[in-house]
Amino acid sequence: MINTEYFTLGHISLLLGFILIIVGFWGILTQKNIVKIILAFSIADAGINILIVSLGYVIGKTAPIIDGSVVQKAGIDVSDSIVDPVPQALVLTSIVIGFGVTALMLAYAMKLFTAKKTLHINKFNDLKW
């Protein structure tokens, strides 16, 4: 019989994050085309973001927005019913930084293509001994 205790949203997103990280690193290490390497970097970046969000996920708690969804009773601390907003803020920052890094890598790839007319890594031997 299958134990459904491990098929929660938190566990599934953790597994998905780890799978995306592994696929991204595999692509970075095995591909020879620079655009494919940049795509693999983006996949690994998305996996890291999913992993951080899933680590901040707490069952039964709500988003850190104080409104009608957070019950404010006398004597009960509001922080007991909301999740920590720091992982969400880190992921938002990571998305913006990842977008900038990806754009910079694509700009370098365009410059390399105009200079060498190829995107294959083995064709770039300017710094090899």
Description of the molecule:
There is one protein chain. The chain has 129 residues and is mainly alpha-helical. The protein has a single domain (8-59, 80-123), classed as Helix Hairpins (Orthogonal Bundle). Helix content is 58%, strand content 0%. The protein is built from three helices and no strands. It has helices spanning 9-30, 34-55, 86-116. 9% of the residues are buried.
In the residues, how many domains can be counted? 1
Q: How large, in whole angstroms, is the Cα Rg? A: 21 Å
Provide the CATH architecture. Answer: Orthogonal Bundle
Percent strand equals under 5%
CATH topology: Helix Hairpins
Distance separating the two termini = 60 Å
Spell the H/E element sequence. HHH
Sequence stretches where pLDDT stays below 50 over 5 or more residues: none
Question: Total helix count?
Answer: 3
Topology (SSEs and partners):
Blueprint: H1 9-30, H2 34-55, H3 86-116
How would you concisely characterize the structure shown here?
By secondary structure, the chain is mainly α. The chain has helices at residues 9-30, 34-55, 86-116. It is elongated and about 65 Å long.
